[in-house]
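User: Hi! I have a protein structure encoded as tokens and I'd like to know what sequence might fold into it. I'm fairly new to this, so please keep things simple.
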């Protein structure tokens, strides 16, 4: 993994945790983290969607967040379609 990839991964993880703190009890979409971590003004944040989902998976493994789909906790690796990220209940 390159230093750039590591830096992006860290930015995404930090963005997820920061957004969850700011939204006090509400969930976020991985796209929220991708937009927050993207350093540009175009639609390039879309390239960070899969890395944002992987960042969420790492935070799940660390016990810091959980991922839901239609209100139910799911394993992000097996989830297809839209998911939400929230603090563990």
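Assistant: Happy to help. Inverse folding works backwards from shape to sequence: for each of the 89 positions I chose a residue that suits the local structure. Here it is:
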């Amino acid at each position: 993994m390159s230093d750039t990839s590591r830096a992006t991964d860290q930015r995404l993880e930090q963005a997820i945790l920061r957004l969850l703190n700011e939204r006090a009890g509400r969930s976020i979409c991985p796209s929220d983290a991708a937009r927050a971590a993207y350093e540009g003004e175009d639609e390039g944040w879309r390239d960070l969607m899969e890395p944002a989902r992987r960042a969420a998976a790492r935070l799940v493994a660390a016990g810091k967040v959980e991922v839901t789909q239609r209100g139910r906790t799911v394993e992000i690796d097996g989830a297809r379609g839209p998911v939400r990220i929230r603090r563990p209940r």
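A useful reference point when you look it over: The chain has one domain: 3-86. Feel free to ask if any position seems puzzling.
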